[in-house]
Amino acid sequence: MSNIERMTIALPIEMADSVRHAISMGDYASSSEVFRDALREWKLKRMRQEQELNAIGAGISQGLEDLKAGNVKSAEAVLSRLERKYRAMTDSTAATH
């Protein structure tokens, strides 16, 4: 870590106590380690959110392409299929009890 920038942050007392507690328990050697770990987790969370949004966007794009190409089913057909599926699930659950 040759490129380090010192930063000062302000925390609510409860958060500062949590940081001190983690250090006193030996989970971390310093407050800097706590914050580096927290920032790594934050970056991972944001990356996952971005991936999820990209997947949703891709699904929407695919749906719009299908719509333009006429690859669609009526709502009645979809609902009918779902009703059969869930009725079968309910029947199989009832049969096992």
Describe this structure in words.
This protein is mainly α. The chain has one domain. The protein contains 3 helices and no strands. The protein is elongated, with a radius of gyration of 26 Å. The protein starts with 12 loop residues before the first helix and ends with a helix.
Can you lay out the helices and strands and say which pair or pack?
Blueprint: H1 13-24, H2 31-69, H3 75-96
Main attributes of the structure:
single chain; 97 residues; mainly alpha
Report a brief summary of the structure.
With 97 residues, this protein is mainly alpha-helical. It is 75% helix and 0% strand.
Helix content: over 70%
Intertermini distance:
60 Å
Biggest beta sheet summary:
none
Q: By helix and strand content, what is the structural category?
A: mainly alpha
Principal-axes geometry comes out as elongated
Task: Give the rounded overall mean pLDDT.
Answer: 94
Please work out how many helical segments DSSP would assign: 3
Q: What is the N-to-C succession of helices and strands?
A: HHH
% residues in beta strands? under 5%
Tally of discrete structural domains: 1
The overall strand count is 0
Whole-angstrom Rg: 26 Å
Low-pLDDT ranges: none
